[in-house]
Amino acid sequence: MAANAIDQTRRMLSLVTYLRERPGAHVADVARAFGITEDELISDLDVLPMCGTSFRGGDLLDIDTDGDRIWWHNPDDVAAPLRLAADEATALLVAARAVATLPGLRESDREALLRATAKLEAAAGEAAGASSRLSVTFESEGGVFAEVDRAISERRRLWVRYYSPARDELTEREVDPIRLFAVGHTYMEAWCRLSEARRTFRLDRVVEIRILDEHAAPPELELRDLSEGLVQPSADDPEVVVEVGPGGRWVAEYYPHDRADELPDGGLRITLRTPDPASLRRLGLRLGSDGRIVAPAELADSARTAAAAALAAYEGV
Questions:
Q1: In angstroms, how far is CA 310 from the centroid of its own chain?
Q2: Using the 8-state DSSP alphabet, how is residue 144 labeled?
């Protein structure tokens, strides 16, 4: 099905050009030219009138057929060269200038980006004026990304100081980076020399990073399929049960779970699995009066203890 959809998309893109050059073309001739049946062509023609040139609500393709010939009534309206609106040009220029300032960016890439930016400024004309009064500064994650990207390309080891929210601690470790990827946040997958295992690090939790002289040599690992998300619990992982009120129903949308049973008050009893139950202690604290951890008992006790300590700290201020 996916391959057919891709083929149809490619065919319709060519069909637009073909019909523009052949007003009143016969259905049979067009179908023969594209190597499809007349029914397939009519199916394409049913889709084309829902296509247009702008997400801003610009003109749609006014194409129809009487079963024998095909008529395109507004080719000149929708075939004009596309131009960037002022806000689009501004956003693109600001982003391009910001990326060009990233530390660790390869010099050849930086020069190519600056050349493209100059051409865009010339084409945008007055619309480029507003972009010169705006700027974007990347915070630490941008610098971390550049360092990781450089380490991967040069096959070098990294030293990182990393904050783990589940344990509320900073650790120092050497890692051999494997890849960068984004699932909501940007992550580095790497072989951790401290734990001698594959680990995933969220870039905005990297407090400090340094490229080392040592050659990175991660073991041959099969890359994880992340199409179903970063967290993919196993059936062997420990089970955690959380009960939430109506204000905590978002937990079922945010966390992969085995079950979500309705409660009489409009809440949910959610059963989920995680390789590290302690990592959900912060969830219990975040829920507050909107929910509670039911099982395992030691995790529930840990969350209650952490909540009591937090309240005591406030009382002491």
A1: 34
A2: H
Distance CA 177, CA 215 (A): 11
For residue 279, what are the contacts with CB-CB under 8 A and spacing of at least 6? Answer: 165, 166
The answer to whether 155 and 178 have CB atoms below 8 angstroms apart is no
Q: Rounded CA gap, 9 and 54, in Å?
A: 17
Tens digit of pLDDT for each residue in 145-159?
888 988 998 999 999
Among positive and negative, which fits the CA dihedral 25, 30, 32, 38?
A: negative
CA 15 and chain centroid, separation? 32
pTM: 0.41
User: For strand 197-202 and strand 185-192, is the pairing parallel, antiparallel, or unpaired?
Assistant: antiparallel
Residue 60 DSSP class? B
Are 206 and 166 spatial neighbours (Cβ–Cβ below 8 Å)? no
- As a whole number of angstroms, the distance between CA 105 and CA 135 comes to 18
